[in-house]
Amino acid sequence: MHIRDWPSSERPREKLLARGAAVLSDAELLAIFLGSGLRGRDAVATARELLAGHGPLRKLLERTPAQLAALPGLGPARAALLAAALELCARYLAAGLERGEALSDPQSAGRYFAQRLRGYPHEVFAALFLDTRHRALAFEELFRGTIDGAEVHPREVVRRALAHNAAALIVGHNHPSGSAEPSAADRTVTAQLKQALGLVDVRLLDHFVVGDGPPVSLAARGWV
């Protein structure tokens, strides 16, 4: 049965318009981008096959556009749509930090770090530099490492903070393993950064660890 023959309340596009995107499954969301299926299958069935064979969703969407285009059921046009949707999401999250407004919701910074860092197969340590009113000045990826670690140099973080004339900053890094639980080394680096930055009157507001689920805030744990 083609999707157009389904009850209207069950069709992905109609369901999204009536009830919001959050109610759709991963396969239903992906089916909207596919538009149609393959080999007599509808778009939802094709999306389920893609997720079963090349997923889950995060793994599927972390592929480059060229890699996506090579998958059955996608091709260049659909791969471009997915890549564009991901970039729109990244820019939407960035807009709230880059439009000059004060950072009033610390968790928005965590979501931004997650969007920027989650896809890397190796550890990346980054910093979001803020002015005296906690408005974003710049975001920089400062250190890159291996699958299980990245060496962080507090002196370099201080140097970049001074270069941006930052009054405060938030740092974050990803755990490619998927676990966002902070390690003992993460806590040690946080303490070192706080001390080094304090010498030049720059506040360390938070340190986020990015994994598969929501980013973990060390400040919320009382470790900043």
Q: What secondary-structure arrangement, pairings included, does this model have?
A:
Layout: H1 12-19, H2 26-34, H3 43-54, H4 57-61, H5 65-69, H6 75-98, H7 106-117, E1 124-130, E2 136-144, H8 154-163, E3 168-174, H9 184-198, E4 203-210, E5 216-217
Parallel strand pairs: 3-4
Antiparallel strand pairs: 1-2, 1-3, 4-5
- End-to-end C-alpha gap: 56 Å
Given the structure, what is the number of helices? 9
pLDDT < 50 stretches: none
Rg, Cα atoms, Å = 21 Å
Major beta sheet, strand line-up: 2-1-3-4-5
State the order of secondary-structure elements, H for helix, E for strand: HHHHHHHEEHEHEE
The largest sheet is: 5 strands, mixed
Q: Share of helix among residues?
A: 40-55%
Structural class, by secondary structure, is alpha+beta
Strand content: 5-15%
What's the total number of strands? 5
Mean model confidence by pLDDT: 88
**Which of globular, elongated, flat, extended, rod-shaped describes the shape?**
elongated
Give a structural overview.
There is one protein chain. Helix content is 45%, strand content 15%. With 224 residues, it is of the alpha+beta class. A hairpin with a 5-residue loop joins strand 1 and strand 2 (136-144).
